[in-house]
């Protein structure tokens, strides 16, 4: 079973999109109001999905839409933690999320490109 296989709507990459939304929210909400943060994040997440199209990530369009939505859910979760609940968070918490995000991102891309090399080996 390949846990990094592309799903039609949600897959393990969805966790990374949620974490990226959460991390983005942590930084945005320190400096910008929610509407500005939400719009900027939506543009950022959409730009990322368009980038993935250009590098031929091979995702279903429904999965790409869900990636944006899940990122925005992570952003809203971050808003609830940091703004609504006014929960004090030490610098270690965001750093932990960043490290987890980077670990999953590198692992997932290594798996994806290894699978691509097996299917289409270069001459």
Architecture overview:
The protein is an all-alpha fold. The chain has one domain. It is built from 4 helices and no strands. The protein starts with 12 loop residues before the first helix and ends with a helix.
Brief characterization of the structure:
72% of the residues lie in helices and 0% in strands. It has 123 residues and is mainly alpha-helical. It has one domain (13-112).
Q: In one word, what is the shape?
A: globular
Number of helices: 4
Compute the CA-based radius of gyration.
16 Å
Structural class: mainly alpha
Mean pLDDT: 79
Oligomeric grouping of the chains: single chain
Estimate nothing, just give the exact number of structural domains. Answer: 1
Give a count of the beta strands, DSSP E runs of length 2 or more.
Answer: 0
Q: Assign a percent range to the helix content.
A: over 70%
What composes the largest sheet? none
| H and E string | HHHH
Distance between the termini: 28 Å
Portion in beta strands: under 5%
Low-pLDDT ranges: none
